[in-house]
């Protein structure tokens, strides 16, 4: 956007000074006008003006004002760029503080380590029974977890890493599907949220991303809780 504004301004300035704009296809060291260029062009115009028809004060003031406008745009662009760089640095610092912590994010996957359990939550719409089915990479059902939601709101679940027969499963990524059955017997599929450790952070063009162990990346805005 900035380049387009400057290019258009350059064309206007050359036209206002009665000069032909440089060929856009010619090799140039720069493609924008600065204050030195304005002063040089104005000096040349004064030197080559018709003595019988000298430039009037109004025209000179208008050209000086145009120069100030272009310089103001350039300064504004520098200020905005500096602000963006500062914001990016602040995001990195905020994200770096999360490295090594557990975060709760939306996910239909969970990662089982060699030891320990995996925790997650669902948002129950009302009191009822919540069932969380765990399946492996082939789609085979590993086990089914059942928790009671006493009221609407967040309800936690925990998988100990074992199948329905009590056998410890291999470390890796598993899929989960949660369903809620209310007191009237109505079944509703629920979104699932799991805890995952933050390994590192990445600053993208559209914000900060957390690199979660085994789950890939997630925007920082997706984080519901940090522990």
Automatic annotation (TrEMBL):
Residues 90-223 form the FlgD Tudor-like domain. GO terms for biological process: bacterial-type flagellum organization. It holds the Pfam family FlgD_ig. Residues 115-180 form the FlgD/Vpr Ig-like domain. This is Basal-body rod modification protein FlgD. Required for flagellar hook formation. May act as a scaffolding protein. Keywords: Bacterial flagellum biogenesis, Cell projection, Cilium, Flagellum. Belongs to the FlgD family. NCBIfam families: PRK12634.1.
């Amino acid at each position: 956007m900035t380049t387009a504004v400057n290019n258009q301004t350059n064309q206007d300035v050359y036209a206002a000074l009665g000069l032909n704009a440089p060929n856009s296809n010619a090799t140039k060291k720069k493609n924008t006008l600065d204050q030195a260029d304005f002063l040089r062009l104005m000096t040349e115009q004064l030197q080559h003006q018709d003595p019988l028809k000298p430039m009037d004060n109004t025209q000179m003031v208008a050209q000086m004002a145009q120069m100030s406008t272009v310089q103001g745009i350039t300064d504004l662009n520098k200020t905005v760029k500096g602000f963006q760089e500062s914001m990016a640095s602040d995001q990195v610092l905020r994200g770096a503080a999360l490295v090594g912590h557990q975060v709760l994010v939306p996910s239909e996957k969970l990662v089982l380590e060699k030891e320990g359990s995996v925790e997650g939550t669902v948002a129950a719409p009302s009191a009822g029974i919540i069932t969380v089915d765990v399946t492996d990479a082939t789609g085979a059902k590993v086990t089914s977890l059942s928790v009671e939601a006493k009221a609407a709101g967040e309800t936690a679940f925990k998988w100990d890493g074992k199948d329905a027969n009590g056998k410890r499963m291999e470390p890796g990524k598993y899929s989960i599907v949660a369903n809620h059955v209310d007191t009237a017997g109505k079944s509703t599929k629920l979104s699932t949220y799991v805890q995952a450790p933050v390994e590192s952070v990445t600053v993208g063009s559209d914000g900060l991303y957390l690199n979660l162990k085994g789950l890939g990346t997630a925007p920082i805005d997706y984080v519901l809780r940090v522990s």
